[in-house]
Amino acid sequence: MDEKRPWVAEVEREIAAVDVADRQVAQLLGAQRRGRGGSGGSVVYSIRLDPDEVKALERRAAVTGLRPTVLARNLIRSGLSAGGSDALSDALRRVEVAVAELRALAS
């Protein structure tokens, strides 16, 4: 089937929007590092999560096919780029639902 279903196209648009936000945050963080005299390389930053949050992160990572640390980094970047907006969180939830639907259709 060559024709994509409308919700697949919507998911692809939302993923593209998240990718754009991720690049914008990465550019912003890179500019801040250069401004502080940093090398521009990544910095290890430790955070504390409760066990339920870790399980939720691991479940979401498994659904998206990412390592939990990569997902956590992307969620932080997305949250920073959203400027406190819930729109990106809602978009991510819709993407997760659509991915689950796609997997159900494929099985």
Describe this structure in words.
By secondary structure, the protein is mostly helical. It has one domain. Helix content is 74%, strand content 0%. The chain has four helices and no strands. The longest helix is centred in the first third of the chain and has 30 residues.
> Which ranges are low-confidence, i.e. pLDDT below 50, for 5 or more consecutive residues?
none
User: Per DSSP, what share of the residues sits in E-state strands of 2 or more residues?
Assistant: under 5%
- The helix count comes to 4
Radius of gyration: 16 Å
What's the total count of β strands? 0
Topology as H/E string?
HHHH
Mean pLDDT: 78
Computed structural class:
mainly alpha
Count of individual domains: 1
Shape, please?
globular
Sheet with most strands: none
- How far apart the termini lie comes to 17 Å
- Helix share bin: over 70%
Short description:
By secondary structure, this protein is mainly alpha-helical. The protein has four helices and no strands. The longest helix has 30 residues, at 6-35.
Key terms:
0% strand; 4 helices; mainly alpha; single chain; globular
